Amino acid sequence: LQVVGTAAQEHARAARAIERATKGVEELVRLLPRPEAELFEPEIAILGELGPALLEKVDAGARPEDAVNEITSGPATDLVTDARARLLDGLAYDHRSVEALLDKRDGDRVLVTATLTPSVVASLPVRVVGIVAASAHADLDAGMASHAVILARARDIPLAFLPPDPVLAIGTDEIIVLDTTSSPARVWASPDDGLVADARARRDAWLHTRAEEEAKVSAPLAHLGVEVHVNVGSLYEHVPASAEGIGLLRTELVFSSHVNAPSEAEQFGALRAIASRVGQAPVVARLFDAGGDKPLPWLRPPAGSEARGIELLLMHPTVLDAQLRALVRAADRANLRVLLPVVSSVHEVQQIRARTGGRLPIGAMIETPGAVDRSDGLAARSDFLCIGTNDLLATVTGQPRVDAALAIDRRVLLMIARVVEAAHAHGRKVSVCGEMAGDPHSARILVGLGVDALSVAPGRFARLKLSLREVSLDDCREVAREATK
Fold first, then answer.
1. Is 409 exposed, middle or buried (0-12, 13-18, 19+ CB in 10 A)?
2. What is the pLDDT, as a whole number, of residue 141?
3. Does the N terminus or the C terminus of the chain have fewer Cβ atoms within 10 A?
């Protein structure tokens, strides 16, 4: 039940929605290659025309949502449909958000928050260079905080958890220095100028070192026969120039700040903006992965259901088909592949293939022991397989996801070997996209087990390639033999 505000409040809400929708399109135009940018530029003009009409109707007493639907009720192009979706999402948007806090604030920022969710981390622009979050417990368990930690780690955003009282005592616009190079992490509020200067110098040195490392790893790892891709979860993430593709595009995170499902046009634009960074290299787009401890307000399971991943998507055919149409459109100019999250049966793969008319390569994500057991059938019906080691390790070891993600467990390694064997028997390739792939020692084991591609966080890309450049395939096979004894 929505509470209707005063006339002034509803006018302000509508004005904010117009501004947010317009900025969203302008940002998309900025990120897109020129041919695709030209497709979206008319939407800026469309919003420019819809805005005054919307405010006029709201001032006359109409509810903003009703006014949006009324002014867009005529024959609708995909851009008008997208403008309507953006305006409605803006009306429902929580303006106590990080986006609102950053408005009119320049320079690098540290996010200080009482509650940390994956969607917050995924949507942070690059100028947010650190996070301080409240936690009453040292154990983050396997809930939303663990996903947020993994995403922050993937994006190389330093993250510190403090007791709630010190976090709440930090004021907006207060200068913060955050150091996570030691354990426990250290946080200074309102530090002296010397400490601030030292922190900035250390960060600049770190960025310089990362750039130097990336410059050293332009050549592929041909001697190992393995490709190194990157995982991406937002429009803002850095993609190294020598990445051989995007091995995991977490589409649900790209749109996680939405209150409503994104339109087909917006999805198409985001897919092209991200894919353009790697040219014709492969981009593996995972379908919206929601449910369980990764809720999305526009993709919820029915009451009493614990469905997640592809099972949940199939319960929302309108959302699923819009995403598949956007992927098919984007694939005209990009090497796009579709990955099905939390696959449990061959039938799910066949359903998605039928819905795309066979126009996209379809891959199955192996994240559970049950999927490992079905890997032969899944390999026979899929075009490729991808192993999600974070969930697989957490399930097998019983550890929280944050702790399990970088573990080495013989049982899981043997499962990976089984999946590789099944895939190769059917002429399919296997990638690993969990955090295990980004750890140098674990990556050697995976190469030794026969994995064809590793997909890692952009911040770990260069260091991983540097470490693998120094070893032979025989070295990797020996490490794998030792680990699976």
1. middle
2. 42
3. N
The whole-number pLDDT of residue 5 equals 77
> C-alpha 423: how far from its chain's center?
26
Spell out the residues 6+ positions from residue 391 whose beta carbon is closer than 8 angstroms to its own.
342, 367, 368, 401, 434
What whole-number distance in Å separates Cα of residue 377 and Cα of residue 110? 47
Task: Report yes or no: 461 and 243 within 8 Å, Cβ to Cβ.
Answer: yes
Query: Which residues have C-beta within 8 Å of that of residue 186, sequence separation ≥ 6?
Result: 160, 178, 179
Low-confidence ranges of the chain (pLDDT < 50): 1, 138-143
Q: Could you tell me the strand order of the sheet in which 128-134 lies?
A: 109-113, 128-134, 159-162
Question: What is the model's pTM?
Answer: 0.90
CA-wise closest residue to 11 among 53, 66, 58, 57? 58
From residue 382, give the alpha-carbon distance in Å to each of 80, 289, 329, 369, 448: 36, 18, 21, 18, 23
The residue to which tokens 């993430």 are assigned: 237
User: CA 311, CA 303: separation in Å to the nearest integer?
Assistant: 15
E-assigned strand segments in 295-438: 336-340, 362-366, 384-387, 429-432
> What is the spatial distance between Cα 441 and Cα 359, in angstroms, rounded to a whole number?
38
